[in-house]
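[job 4471] stage=fold_predict status=RUNNING
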Amino acid sequence: MRAVNLHAYRADQVRALEQSVMAVEGPDVLMQRAAAGLARSALDLLRRTRGSVYGARVVVLAGTGNNAGDALHAGARLARRGVRVTAVLALGRTHEAGLAALLAAGGMLRSADQAGLVDLGTVSRPPVDLFVDGILGIGGRAGLTGPLEGLVAVTGRWSIPVLAVDLPSGVDTDTGAVPGPAIRATRTVTFGVLKPCHLVEPARSRCGELELVDIGLEDADPDELPALRGCSYDDLAQAWPYPAADGDKYARGVVGVDTGSDTYPGAAVMSTYGAVYAGAGMVRFLGSDRPAQIIGAQLPSVVFSPGRVQAHLFGSGWGDNAAGGDTLLRAADEGLPAVVDADGLRYLPDHCPDSWLLTPHAGELARLLDVPRGEVEADPLRAVRAGAEQIGATVLLKGATQLVATPGRDLVLVARPGPSWTAQAGSGDVLGGVCAALLAAGVRPQLAGQLGASVQATAAEAHPGAIPPQELARAIGALLGDLQRRRDQLVLHR
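[job 4471] inference complete, writing structure tokens
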């Protein structure tokens, strides 16, 4: 992802930022800056995929809004470089000034049939080296229907690069949903700031490689705070709580783990692995006897007696736990940070302490909110914010995109994406242990959720394939050394 930062703004915020700039610099400045960046990216893609620019065939799929204007003005710049540019009006009409600029530069206007974008029954490859998707922008409706659905099929049928303008047409800007046919881009060039669809699945995967072009938006209005903030590798490296040279095990943090049961010992084992390999100074396992025996044989550094802890981990593998409600009530009264996962979510007090981090998946969050699971999956950003406000604690919503919301704060943190291999039994247990180790080290719950999910995803990315969760936990331990070295490099080069 070639973005300067990972701050994302909603569509209404982007419009406000654009208005701030246009009020000072005029209405055409932003479009020309965007077109220049888009043209540079198109030339780069053509060189990569075709080897040369002159004589390349580019089709601009133009809608009616400013995205089409950006694409058509970029097409005019390409035409002046010897590229054969054809505009296809995807919605019957388009941005007039952009089209005039393209035609004046030697570009052409054709129907879909004339451009070789024929019906779905054809087997012939269109004479195109690059598609530029300028159909819909941040104001467009998610999902493409009618004739547009045919264009989506054409762009996806052959290995022809697709350059999306701002976002792939058909995705939902603010939620990342893809409710119908949508463009799948090779690269998306977005302008000024990221939008939620660039960070949230399933839209994120449709963006392909993401490139951010500076058009002067981010500093236009300092009062416009981002709606989302992602996490880069360098962000992870700089934010992790490494042990101090003069620290001890209590400075690193002691985690009390009450997970698993005689029926489900694996959850206890996995969650303890997560806490140990995330760097906890000490882990006290306070669960039942059968998992304790397994943990003692595999992790001899774990302690099995009550004592001082700085954060708790509860819930995964509890099953039907008659003492679950009382356990969580005592912990709430104690006031220490805690992670509550899986079965523990069934025993929450009426209002949780704001020092707690809950880690539900979509189904569990739906039950907490008393809504259908599909409602959470359709708009996970709204759901995770609602969960945090209703419950009173920070919520890490696990899934393809992992989102962390905290009460009283509009900003949602987004974890680094990882490979789909991590969707396996035990991964959530390990994550709970990692997050508990971060809480014990003094990290605030929202950041702990983002860092924990990000470090697990980064370890999985470095070890692709069917790697068991406990092996990935060990990989996290090694990754922390790499992250610390990266942090040291960044400090030296400031």
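[job 4471] summary: The CA atoms of residues 54 and 82 lie 5 Å apart.
[job 4471] exit 0
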